[in-house]
Structure formats: structure tokens, C-alpha cells
Amino acid sequence: MFYLPPVEYFVNLQTYKPGILVEREEHFPKQTYRNRAHIYSPDGVLSLVVPVVKGSKQHTKIKDVKISYDFNWQRLHWQSLQACYRRSAYFEYYEDDLAPFYEKNFPFLFDYNEQLLHFILKAIKLKVELDFTDTYVPEHAGLIDLRSAFSAKKEPDFNQKPYIQVFEERHGFKMNLSIADLLFNQGPHSLNYL
Prior knowledge:
By secondary structure, the chain is of the alpha+beta class. It is built from seven helices and four strands; from the N terminus they run H-E-E-E-H-H-H-E-H-H-H. The protein has helices spanning 7-16, 73-85, 91-98, 109-124, 168-171, 179-186, 190-193, and strands at residues 19-22, 36-41, 44-49, 129-132. Strand 2 and strand 3 (44-49) form a beta hairpin.
């Protein structure tokens, strides 16, 4: 379960729907999309990171990782989304539904990401049935395993066609940004794009 997942994640959801098995028993891997997203800012790609409580290291199950509220990261993320996408075609259309995710405190990262994912799936009108693991299994027989297929540290390995982005006149098209970028720029056409 990722925080505002990259576009590539939704391309895969679209490809493998209707049934998707989501891992919630794995140990929390650091520096992944599970607690970070990339958006397009006037200066280029901006990373938004959801801070986690100290001790949420390699041996904490992803479902048990707690979000840290030591500083107001929600305000920072919301202001960043507003500053970066206020000029986009559809930001105002989704703004009121998205704002509560940056006002309400969610104790656990997994729960926060799950509710955010349900909002996004509804917004882009992608019908996907999500099931969740009850135990950690290193390899699921007969299933395509995408648990480590998406990396926040390396370039995506898929061919993404360009769409209009707010700051592309400054820095060109940026691939595989957060689904928020696609949603705010393409709105109800996001599903057709995927």
C-alpha cells in the first residue's frame, strides 16, 4: 500500500484487475513509495515523505507502522499540493474530497494509505477489488508479485505516454509521478489515459 502511488502502480492495477492481493504483513521497507510520493513543482520533482514513528524499522510489519506527527507534515504536503496544482485543470474539482486526508490524524500508515487509495480509485473510476494478506508469504504461487516492482530510487521501467503537466514548459514531461499529478491534470480522463 503506497502513499499517493505513482502512475505505474495504477497501470498495473488496471492490467491485473479485478482482484488484487495487497501485502500488509511484510516488514516495512525504508525509502519506498509506502511513505513517499513525487509531484511536479515549479523547480522540478518534489518528494513528499510521510514521517513514521522512530522504531518503525525493518522488523515492523507494514500494518503496524505508525505515522509521526512530531511536526505538521500534513500542512506541508497540503500546501505543496495546492501550490503545485492550483493551476491544473482539475485540482479544484477534487480539493474538497482530498483535504480531509491532510486535516485528520491517522495513527497507522497502512490505514491512511488504504483510505487514500480508495478515494483515488473512486476519483479515477477504476473498479478494483482489494484483498489483503493475513500472513507473510515470500512467494505467492500463481500470482504476479509486484511487492518490490516499484522503486522510488530508480527510473521506471515502463513506457509512459506524455500528458499535459502544469510545469512541463519549464522542465519537460516528468514520468511516473504520483497519481495526484495525473488526476489533477487529466481529471475524469485519467482512466482512459491508464
